[in-house]
Amino acid sequence: MIQDSETVDAFLARHASDVEETVRQAAALEIMPRWQRLAAHEIDQKAGPHDLVTDADRKAERYLTEQLVALLPGSVVVGEEAVHANPASYEAIRGEGPVWIVDPVDGTRQFVHGETGFCTLVALALRGVVLASWTYAPAREQFATAIRGQGAFLEGERLHAGPPEPGRDLRVATSHPDYTTQEQKRALLGLWTKGVAPRACGSAGLEYLAVARGESDATAFSWEAAWDHAAGLLLVEEAGGTHLTRTGEPFRITGGNDLPFTAARDAATARQVAALLSGGAA
């Protein structure tokens, strides 16, 4: 089994483009043929009316699981739908071998409504460190990639988030209230202050891409599911941004974070948002 980062780096040097093609094929075969064509029997609820799953989610995840493991023998997949069926499978993120972290359709609610704000997220991690990520929004024809230490790219163009423009309110995408505890709601209320313009988030993957592009300034999220965050966090990092929990530590995909946390386009913005979430000032 592959257990060292140098071997994974060698794999990425040879096969990063193969992973991209696999993600594109999953969308072409299993997702886009169902977009704006879903029948009622192809849509189910998981935890409630805002937590949807479709045949596109299930079939795309199965396709990605088969193809990614074949590309990297000895790897395992932690996918949103597989973990829903078997929560214990999430523990593989904390294991010793390489892990593919997969969200087949991030933004399922938008997908169900026939909107364009959904994407497929794939990240490759080893011992809790995300080494590469792929973010594909097929309805918007946007494909973003990142490899640790090599930068973030959108359609081949390097991304540089840069600091926010001075003198305007910070644009911060926040967790939907339905997915927050009372304590997290109180923490998020810290963003309702002068100089900050919070709004409810859409697809987490696309919110991270907006930060990496400098279109948004930060996120403030209150849940830990690695398939929503792993790909986007690396994208933000490689575009020059950073991420912090309320205690000022980087977010860990292995869990145990003080929530909510932020990912921001630069370190100063991350510190400012994290301070507001913890009830203080930067």
TrEMBL record:
GO biological process: one example: phosphatidylinositol phosphate biosynthetic process
Superkingdom of origin organism: Bacteria
UniProt entry tagged with the keyword Magnesium: yes
Name of the protein this chain belongs to: inositol-phosphate phosphatase
Cross-referenced InterPro entries: Inositol_monoP_metal-BS (IPR020583), Inositol_monophosphatase-like (IPR000760), Inositol_monophosphatase_CS (IPR020550)
Keywords assigned by UniProt, alphabetized: Hydrolase, Magnesium, Metal-binding
Cofactor(s) needed by this chain: Mg(2+)
A molecular function GO annotation: inositol monophosphate 1-phosphatase activity
Protein's UniProt keywords contain Lyase: no
Catalysed reactions, semicolon-separated: a myo-inositol phosphate + H2O = myo-inositol + phosphate
E.C. number: 3.1.3.25
Gene3D superfamilies: 3.40.190.80, Fructose-1,6-Bisphosphatase, subunit A, domain 1
Residues binding Mg(2+): 80, 103, 106, 228
Organism whose genome encodes this protein: Streptomyces cyaneogriseus subsp. noncyanogenus
